[in-house]
Structure formats: C-alpha cells, structure tokens
Amino acid sequence: MNIRDRVAVVGVGCSKFGEHYDRSLEDLVVEAAFEAYRDARIEPARIEAAWVGTLESGYSGTALADPLKLYDIPITRVENYCASGMDAFRNACMAVAAGMYECVLVLGFEKLRDSGRRGLGTFGTHPVVGYGTTAPSLFAMAANRYFKTYGVTKDALAKVAVKNHHNGTMSPKAHFQMEVSEEQVLAAPLICSPLGLFDCCPTTDGAAAAIVCRTDVARSIRPDPILVKGLGLAVTSGEPYLKPGFAYTGFPATRRAAESAYEQAGVTPKDLDLAEVHDCFTITEILNYEDLGLCAPGEGWRYVAEGRASIGGEVPVNPSGGLKSFGHPIGATGVRMIYEVCQQLWHKAGARQVKDAEIGLAHNLGGPGAVGCVTVLANA
Amino acid sequence: MNIRDRVAVVGVGCSKFGEHYDRSLEDLVVEAAFEAYRDARIEPARIEAAWVGTLESGYSGTALADPLKLYDIPITRVENYCASGMDAFRNACMAVAAGMYECVLVLGFEKLRDSGRRGLGTFGTHPVVGYGTTAPSLFAMAANRYFKTYGVTKDALAKVAVKNHHNGTMSPKAHFQMEVSEEQVLAAPLICSPLGLFDCCPTTDGAAAAIVCRTDVARSIRPDPILVKGLGLAVTSGEPYLKPGFAYTGFPATRRAAESAYEQAGVTPKDLDLAEVHDCFTITEILNYEDLGLCAPGEGWRYVAEGRASIGGEVPVNPSGGLKSFGHPIGATGVRMIYEVCQQLWHKAGARQVKDAEIGLAHNLGGPGAVGCVTVLANA
Lengths: 380, 380
Prior knowledge:
Two copies of one chain form a homodimer. The first copy, chain A, is of the alpha/beta class. The first copy, chain A, folds into two domains: 7-117 and 205-225, Peroxisomal Thiolase, Chain A, domain 1, CATH 3.40.47; 132-195 and 227-379, Peroxisomal Thiolase, Chain A, domain 1 (3-Layer(aba) Sandwich). Chain A is 36% helix and 18% strand. Chain A has helices at residues 25-40, 62-68, 84-97, 127-130, 135-150, 154-168, 182-187, 215-221, 252-265, 282-291, 300-305, 322-326, 330-345, and strands spanning 7-14, 49-53, 75-79, 103-110, 190-192, 195-196, 206-214, 226-235, 274-276, 359-366, 371-379. Chain A has a nine-stranded mixed sheet, with helices on both faces. In chain A, β5 and β6 form a beta hairpin. Chains A and B meet through α2, β3, α3, β8 and α9 of A and α2, β3, α3, β8 and α9 of B.
C-alpha cells in the first residue's frame, strides 16, 4: 500500500537561514510555523497534532507547546540524523493517512552556531564517528573513489558549488546570496582533500514548517493543495563506510528510498520537474543524481557540467541553492526542502522558478550514508 | 477517527532489566527483539519498518540495522522524554493503520548505568531542569502539596512501594525481586523530602519490543492477537511546574491523553482489568490513579491503602512491579508496559496474573509532567 494522494500540504513556512546569534530557537520556530499558518490561512487551533524533527537541538516536542500555543495535543520528536525533518514529515503524513488527525504541523529546526555544536562534524555517538572520522573525511573518500573510478577531477565538483551558489542568489531566505566562480572554488582552502571550503555546506541555524491535511480537508482549505505522492525511507546499515561491500560511489539507502517513493507515486525520474537533494558536499550531489536515477552511474559529473541540473535544464536540482547555499540546520533541512518544492509547485519561487513545475522530489541522506529519505510531491 | 481494532500486537519481548555493566545496548535490544520474533513465530525478514524509542542513549535507528538484521527498511527514532517508547509504539501503530506496512517492529531501550547518565536526574535541556531542579525535587513538591491538600502523610506513599515491590517478586525480568515493608520504606534515607529511597524508581538498563500488524494480518499470524483500542498522547506545556495554574495534585497531560484513549477505545476506567502506570515516584502512582479516573481526586491514597490497586483488587495497578521494582530504562519503559499488558491479556503472567484480564491500559508520564501517553489494549 502507499500514501499516494491521501495526504496533502496546505501551507509551508521557513525562517531566514543563517547565523542567528541574536535569535533563539523558539524565535526561528515561531517564524517558520506562523508563516505556514498564514500560508494555509488557518489558525493554530486547527492543528490537532505535531511532529518535530531535530538531530541534537536538545528539545523534545514539549518545549514547543508554549511558543507555538499548541496545548494539550500530541507532539512527537523524530530523530533520524540528517533526515530528521523529512522523517518527521513522513510520520505526520502516515498519522493523517491513518485517519487519526485531519490537520497536523511538521517542524524541522536546528540551532548549530551558538550551541557548541559543529554541524556535520558532530554525529554524536554514531559508530563511524566514534572511530574518529568526521563528515568531510567520509565524503572525501567518496570523492576520491569517484575520481579514480570515472577519471574526473575536482573541476567536476566545483560545478555543483557554482550552480548552487548561483541559485542561492535568487533565494532570499538562503544562508548565502553569493556567486562563486569555478576558480574561487578550486582555489579555496582544503577541508579534507579533495574537498575544499566551497565543496562543504555551511553550519547554519534555521527552522521550517509544513501543514499536512487529509486530502479532502486540504481541498476545503485551499484550491491547490500539494499532494503527497510517495514517502520512502531506507536504513541500509549503521556503518556503510565500514562494510567491505560499500562501493563509495553511491548510497544504497538513497537508491532504496527512491525506489520505494517512485513506486508509491507511480512516477519515474523522467517525470520529475525538479529535485531538492542532499548536497552536504558537492560530491554528494553528484552521487545523488546517479542514486536517484536522474542519470546513469558515472554520468553525474556530466549531468551538472552539461547544465542538465541547472534551472532550465533536464531536471533542475537544488533551485533553492541546496544545503550548499541555503544552509543545513540539520533537522530543518528536510522540511525546508518540502518548503522549496511547494514554492516551486505553487509557482511562487520568483527568479528561481522552474517553468511549469508539476512534480517535485525532496531527498535527505543521513547517518552518515546509512539513511535515505525521499518524498515525491505533485500538484493536485 | 481513531485506531480502534485496526492494528494488533502479535508478539512482545523484554530483556532482563537491571544493571548490565557486562552487556551492550545491542545485546539488550537483540534479547528483546528476538524474544518478540519467537513470540510471534515470525522471521525478522517479515518486518517492513521499525520505530525505536530512546531518550538519550545516543542511537538513531541506524545503529540497530546491524544487530537486528533489519536492512534496507525504514527505521525511525522517536524521542518524547519518558514516553519515548510508548510514542514509538503509537507512531508504529499509525503507520500500520495508514496501510503503509503490514508488520512492523517497535523497540524501546536505554542504558543508564554505565553511560554516564543518571536516569531521572538528567532531562537534558528541559527548561525546568535548566533551572537546577531534578526529577525527585519536582515530584517531592507534588507529594507535599498532596499531603497538605488531602491531609495524608508519608505512610500513604509507602503503600505504593510495598505493593510494587511485592509484585516485582513475581516478575522474573524485573530489576528487583525484593519485598519491602512499610517500616523499611519509611526508614529509608531521604532523597528529597518527603521522598525516600524506596519512593523513587531505580536507574536501570533494559530493552523491550513489540511486533505490530494490521489486524487481518495479525489474525493470520496467531489466533489471539491483542487489539490496539486507543492511543492517546498529550503535551500540555513545556513547563507545567512553572505555570501559575499548575495544581501539583495531578497532571493534565495524563488526563487529556487518557480521555483521548478511552474515547477511541469506547471504554471507561471501570472497564479496565489492569493498568501499568508511570510510578517514577510513589506519589506519581497515586496521582495517576486519580488522573486516569480509577478513583476520584483526593482518593488515590485510599485506592492503594484499601488494596484496590493490588492484584485481585478493583483495577490492579502495576502487577509487573512498575517502574519502582521492574526498573525504568527510560525509552524502554513504555514498550515494557505494553509487554506486561500483553502477558496479562494472554494469561501468561504466572504468579502475578490478573484473573480473567481482557482489557488493559499502559500509561507514561514525561517531560517532566508535560507529556502524557496512554494506550488501551484488549483481547480480540
């Protein structure tokens, strides 16, 4: 069975992403949630239950009841590494599809800049990190293997950074609005060879929200709800990087989650009008193209180099600017992607609008590399 | 809408609870999960998705894929303070009721004794704890207010400890198998006046598991699945103890969650044959009687003193021994309660069996005091 068309999004919100030393987590959450309420033209009292996604901001759902005025209802925190926000969305959709609630709120948030946390450098007790590795080093291994397998070089990665920073200049809520040139990317300080500063997403504070309803209720709230077509989640193993069989040139978790989401949605990658994917590092976006089936294995570097991932290209990827430019407040990211896909499907994305967008995909990778989460959304 | 009868439990498992310095969290999880597989007579490959509940054992679901051989399927971690395990169960039930999966696994676990964690003393960043208070001090305030309001003394609390330790002697997996006398309870060292050592639950390691199926599938697995009748969760506020309106003589979160679960189940407290409730402290159990409607406000102390909460009484409460005697590995507790209710409804509870048990309730309180979670289960 699947989720197809039984649940819809009626409103989304997103805080400005960036370094918010002067604002609390509650400030960011309120900004995102109340934008979503306004977008849906509903009152907070309409919300019957909520799900919050955060990796390590230390909040259970309880602390949200007060700032959001959500009293006496169920609030559940979901944690699933970098897919925390999208998995919160998935659980909310299933609860609505179960008929338990008509209208619920999903929130993703993280405050990384003044919490003593270091974003992708701190995966808590994940066993891979327990051995002393950090996210840049793990994805650097993937980049080096990709280079060796397919005979490409750092130039291939730089094209992702250039594209996503360009898209970010058209994204008013993105952490960065700043073009970068291929030369700048290649000349940037190395973080972990071959990944330089511009190959890595930043450490960002932010929150994003979505309001999810039963489809018949959604249609009574607005004429153009966004239908949830597929929800895929796969955990392939706790330690992909430690497995002898791990190829380093892609993530089985993404492939499995995408397969599930495509099957539920009844679509193929060819049907997508845009995709928001997990570009925690530039190499990750290239691997994502291949894992999501936008192109064949080994062709990801060409996919971006030939402009097929640009706005106006075959399937535009990360028109928002992606994690690279929009930022990556871990628990917020999955919901922020859903925010962007909805903006695109509602044709409200301004300068970064993908023409005639009707079907969009959002993708998180977490855990590191063990968790793939894919959501397919479409116009009603 | 509600969950009633659409989802059922087909197998449960529980590790020995206690101080497991010699066993890893994975050891405990495997013990609980494989007991549940055996109980349901299914292979792990039958599981299509999993939910794990843990407060702060630092594990996302990913780290469970390997020990449990659950590859390529969705695994979601739910955190909701002391209700983490029961809320994981709730989300699993809703996903099954949504038709997304036929057969899923729920796991609750926590390793408190050699993790540097101090159980109820560490609520992470909960705002109440941020002000320097700990769980014993919060519940001590409730006890003192209860004493003042209803004119009772510490003897009232001691009766809960005596009952639950007695029940624990019949619970082979409980942390403690040890009778205590009212004199011993009253003479024990003070933790936070009026709560003494035997008024507080211990700090325990453990894991518990449940296998949840669509009801038609459940009936094909075993002739006697346990039906999920009601799932209530309520978050009343992030900081009940800081609210001017907080009465200290009960928890609105429990009342609201129970109201929701009873309504879904179509039962009243009178219909219950037993209840597993959140006796993190002896005073909490007395307040739970009142909040769950087993007796009127102010009558909870009588309910235990008159033996109405004992096995053989009106509605036996915590026949397992409760958190007090079975232990309280935070994320495990909610699932452990479901384990106990199922044992009772299957009439497999040995010396602690409640005669003719047909309908049972499980209740968690968390957050501290902000989160109430109530599950009603019944024989098919």
